[in-house]
Amino acid sequence: MPTISILPGAVADQIAAGEVVERPASVVKELVENALDAGAKSVEVTVHEGGRALIRVADDGCGMDRDDVLLALERHGTSKIRTAADLVGVVTFGFRGEALPAISSVSELNLESCTSGGAGLEVRSAAGKVLNVSDAARQTGTTVTVARLFYNVPARQKFLRGARSEWRAIAETMTNIALARREVRFVVTHDGKPAINVPPAADLRERLAALHGADYAASMVQVEDLAGAVHTSGLAEKPADVGTRTRRIFVTINGRVVRDHGLVRAAEAAYRNTIPAGVRPSLFLDIVLPADLVDVNVHPAKAEVRFRDRWPVERAVEAAVRRALGNWDSSASLGPRAYAPGWNSFQAQSQADSALNESGGLSLEFTAAAAQAGNGTPAFDAARGDVDAAEAMPENDYVPPLFQLNRTYVTFEHDGSGLVLIDQHSAHERILYERFMTALETGASPSQRLLFPITLHLGGPEVDAFEENREHLEKLGFEVELFGGNTLLVHSVPAPHARFDAERCLRETLTALTGDRAPGTIARHERLLATVACKAAIKGGEVLAPDEMRALFLALRDTKLPAHDVHGRATIVRIAWDELERRFGRR
User: Last residue of a domain, which of 142, 163, 198?
Assistant: First the structure.
């Protein structure tokens, strides 16, 4: 007796349904995507009891005639592909020809459809069998009603979650589809109550505002970048906001909403040294690349894709988000505000003046060479520093009038938008970090030889930290000799600015590097650079001369990530005029 047999058609259909229809949200997704493929400009979704009792999707698409309606309920019936070659570069949402028959096999399904100028048709089916075909009066488009999902598969039905959980999954599915197809109107109701009602939108920010509120949408940073054949656009959360509200992730590949942990990790990598460890940003990204470089036919629900070469795509996404975070628009703000690209005008000016900066810019080197006190420690010498700074600055490099508040914040008014506050320590920390990173990569960091070496008496853990980081410290400009036991002799030090206290910086850096305080969250060299930059930067409470504030402003403007220090804190906070006027009762 043979041990292999052919499955009955009903069983095969239910197995196929299990691959395509995981839960009510899967039904909603398949039906709405069919509506979009039919050219719908308006889609209405009605749900009862989280989709367990009823799901109805009505559209104003092209509709189907009698023959197509009947074929659509047959397995592998599709209007999207004809040969296997058509699977390469397929751009439609539905193409497998499995959704409608799979849904029909595990529910009671009613389909009404009408083409332009044609006669309407209604088909009723249950458990995959057509029960009735009749004429129907309706406008152009299609309506599919699914009732009693999994009624004939009790084993599947008992694994459905409660109505509230199933509804949340449907709401998330429809939110993602609405974000992806901004040109379409979507209306969703649940148990007779309106849930989503969004008109067509011009762009992602407008659609995001309709779904999550105008303030939320306005607070996101614009992403727009082209790297080779990969175009990445969308919105990314400001580092200052990460961890303060619900995290949301949305990614499309060529217009198709997908789950791709690799791309999300690449985008999150762009936030390194801008947010604290353990928090993750919200991201809304559209990624477009040639269709033949991505295979969408790798998942039954078409929720995952495979790239011909994944590495360039991930690098392009990381670079795009990193570049977006480099704009001043990514800085923290107080009070609601409209999206204002004008905040980046200083960086635009920076690009125009980049040649001048390379030839004569100071970039916060307050003195040409730091003075050295009697004990061998560099000290600030105003007579030898500020004049040099003023003479080295390009005359046409625009800087707004700057003022220092509380000996900690540098402030200025931005044209028509509001007030800008710069934390002098955090800003200088960011400047030094990027400068030290360049020194580490090039191996060329300016340093000065001390007249008298600095002697450091340390504990064993600090000496161990020195040995582990000796190579990187030398590249930064520290020439240090281990002088028996736990004593170090420092012969040369970096000269990042005139106030730099080399002894204190090195001692505090080695203390901070003892132990494994941040395992797996940051590379050792990045942790070292972040620590040295923090310890070397000017501190809050120090009075800055006008030329020093000017140098700080220009150097921060020219960094890659000016709005955030290396610990994830904001370097820049903006206060909109609207917020100030509201506080004073003018609005």
Answer: 198
